[in-house]
Amino acid sequence: QTCPSGHSNTSSSSSSSSSSSISAKPSASDQPLPSVLSSPFRSSLRYDVFVCHNDEDSDLAQSLASFLEAPSNGLRCYLQERDCPAGGAVSTELLQAVQDSHCWLLLVTPNFVKDDWCSYQMHQVLSEGPMSQRIIPAVVNMPRSQLPLELRFLFTVDLNTNKEFGYTLVYKTVLHCEYFVSIIECVHDTSSIRKSAILVAVNVNNVIYPNGTHKFC
User: Fold this and answer.
1) CA count, 13 A, side-chain hemisphere, 217
2) Which InterPro entries match (predicted)?
3) Rounded CA gap, 93 and 2, in Å?
4) Per-residue model confidence as pLDDT tens digits over 130-176
5) Integer Cα distance of 109 and 61 in angstroms
6) Of 86, 106, 153, 204, which residue is most buried, by most CB within 10 angstroms?
7) How far apart are CA 50 and CA 77, in angstroms?
8) DSSP alpha helices (H): ranges in 53-189?
9) What is the DSSP letter of 143?
10) What does the alpha-carbon distance between residue 167 and residue 63 come to, in Å, rounded to a whole number?
11) In this structure, are residues 49 and 5 in contact, taking their beta carbons and an 8 Å threshold?
């Protein structure tokens, strides 16, 4: 199986057809991007966010990616239909992209849960970091009771009622993820007990403010 040289989405779902592009609010010229986005840790991987979605939800996925990649937000997203090189083996390119991303966004819709390929990607992501706070399920038109069992214990982002708020929450979650993991990477003691203690401390005390700055309480 190879990646297509181009992507044509002729079908539409209720979630994709109703989605509209949401632009990130322009930042003031004197307000730089959050410092975590210029950290050496961030540059160690090619992408900030791997976006997993069903083909019928491509419009929504592209709208969300455009928001995250806007100059005022500055993230780097992976979209298979856009970033998979022509002629590359899908499974190989997918695994490489998963491993080369700081966070993994699962766009969970009715189309997603019926798609075997999305299920495969979801399990690849879960195998990489099941409890690492790097998985972000963004849910559209899906009650929690219908989510895949593997995702029901995770915090989810609701894109149903207020997409702009949901997009912003995804952005802040990515910043938290990158900051969180960068703290862990700075710890040279690999003792599981010490690492667990740090995970709890960062999770409880780290605060992300609306402007993307970080502070320890």
Assistant:
1) 9
2) TIR_dom (IPR000157), Tol-interleuk_rcpt_adapt_Tirap (IPR017279), Toll_tir_struct_dom_sf (IPR035897)
3) 9
4) 667 799 999 999 999 999 999 998 889 999 889 999 999 999 999 98
5) 11
6) 106
7) 6
8) 58-69, 80-83, 90-99, 110-113, 116-128, 163-185
9) -
10) 9
11) no
Q: Are 93 and 79 in contact (CB under 8 A)?
A: no
N-terminal to C-terminal alpha carbon distance within the chain: 50
Residues 31, 32, 33, 36: what is their CA dihedral angle, to the nearest 10 degrees? -120
Cβ distance 56 to 12 under 8 Å? yes
DSSP state of 77: E
Mapping DSSP to helix (H, G, I), strand (E, B) and coil, where does residue 12 land? coil
Cβ-proximal residues to 49 (8 Å cutoff; 6+ apart), any chain: 65, 68, 75, 76, 77, 78, 101, 102, 103, 104, 105, 136, 174
Domains, the chain, in order of start with CATH, read 33-175 (3.40.50.10140)
Tokens of 8: 């044509």
Q: Is the Cα dihedral 23, 29, 31, 34 positive or negative?
A: positive
3-state DSSP call for residue 10? Answer: coil
What tokens appear for 184 in the block? 């862990």
Is the pTM above the cut of 0.85?
A: no
